[in-house]
Write a structure and sequence with these properties.
heterodimer; A: 178 residues; mainly alpha; 0% strand; B: 199 residues; 8 helices; 76% helix; globular
Chain lengths: 178, 199
């Protein structure tokens, strides 16, 4: 059946991306677009961008765009296969590291790993915040609301949903006033 | 001098090795991660997790959370999924990891399939588009808070400050992909970490 080949190809296309996503799913989006649009011709560029937009406003990590692509290509089975392909390889690596971490809590390699990687993680988090806010609607309003929420999250003990809701309302208010 | 390797901890956490409250059960783990997975919009779920687990529920200390964050950011894979795996593993071992991953991924996966093109059409309605954009911006604010905390945690000496600045400038100003930045700076950073331990 044609479907079996398609599922296998999806697995072979998405699984390597899982291990390339150092620093998060956003780092393989370009590679994903190349694979899906240029190499496999599964989607048009516009189709890919539409799905990208959906994955950004829908709940959950943006990498679930791969689930949506799988669903679009091969229904429920496609969604399942593509989700496993993009998440399983990296997840296994994390569990293996967590296992050794737990067994040898004071080994030198852990300290070296944390020492070396923590500044990179901090830099990547802040640079993605920067990138997101530059793309965000509202210009200075986006920056203002983000900084407001950041400060509030440290100063008041509120759940994230409350903070996000308040931030979103302030954002809409300022946008309407402008 | 192993103590010097640890970042300065907040006075708020009296015993940094132990979280303030007992570890949650599997069902509680599943429910909280489901909530986080389903309510995270436009990124920033790391910030939501920090606010939920460290500030609100106190299952983890800042240090436990941030070392997990550092690893989940650095190892390949989706940050949120990695962090869920890591925190789940810390709570309940491998079953906890699997439960947390499933909880954070599966409900949003169903939602994205179900609402797919409907959401895209809804963003054309101005009010709903603004609200979604506002939620995304607020979520980014939570990430900013975590980024600030992670920076304070990571920058313990000149070398780590340089690594941080190099990463941020490289990714932001020069638009290097995270892959390139990590491939170049991670070995340098880990190497310096080993040298520091030896001396």
């Amino acid at each position: 059946m044609k479907d079996d080949n398609l599922l296998l190809t999806m697995l072979l296309v998405f699984a390597p991306l899982s291990l390339m996503a150092i620093g998060g799913g956003a780092s393989v989006l370009g590679e994903l677009q190349r694979s899906v649009v240029d190499n496999q011709h599964w989607l048009t560029n516009q189709g890919f961008l539409d799905m990208f937009a959906i994955s950004r406003v829908a709940p959950g990590p943006g990498t679930l765009i791969v689930t949506l692509i799988g669903w679009h290509l091969a229904g429920l089975l496609g969604a399942i296969v593509s989700t496993i392909a993009i998440f399983a390889p990296s997840s296994m690596l994390v569990v293996v590291v967590a296992y050794f971490w737990h067994r040898h809590p004071n080994a030198a390699w852990q300290k070296a790993l944390i020492y070396g990687l923590a500044p990179l993680a901090a830099g990547l988090v802040l640079s993605s915040v920067f990138a997101l806010l530059q793309e965000a609607r509202g210009g200075w309003i986006a920056w203002f609301v983000a900084i407001l929420v950041a400060v509030a999250s440290r100063k008041v003990r509120l759940g994230p949903l409350t903070l996000m809701g308040a931030g979103a309302i302030i954002f809409c208010g300022l946008l309407a006033l402008q | 001098m192993p103590q010097a390797d640890l970042p300065a901890l907040k006075p708020a956490s009296p015993k940094p090795e132990e979280p303030a409250l007992p570890k949650p059960g599997l069902l509680q783990l599943f429910l909280v991660f489901t909530k986080l997975g389903i309510t995270s919009i436009g990124g920033g779920v790391n910030g939501m997790m920090h606010s939920e687990f460290v500030i609100h529920r106190r299952w983890f200390t800042d240090e436990q959370f941030l070392s997990g964050l550092a690893l989940s950011q650095s190892l390949p894979g989706v940050n949120v999924a990695n962090l869920a795996l890591w925190l789940g593993y810390q709570c309940r071992g491998i079953i906890g990891a699997v439960v947390a991953l499933a909880a954070v991924l599966l409900p949003p996966a169903f939602v994205i399939i179900l609402i797919g093109d409907v959401v895209l059409r809804m963003t054309n309605v101005p009010e709903i588009g603004s609200l979604l954009a506002g939620l995304a911006v607020a979520a980014t604010g939570l990430s900013l808070s975590v980024g600030y905390l992670a920076t304070r945690y990571a920058c313990t000496d000149i070398a780590s400050v340089l690594l941080f600045v190099g990463t941020f400038i490289g990714a932001t100003a020069f638009h290097f992909s995270a892959l390139v930045v990590v491939a170049v700076l991670a070995p340098i950073g880990i190497g310096i970490g080993f040298l520091r331990n030896r001396s």
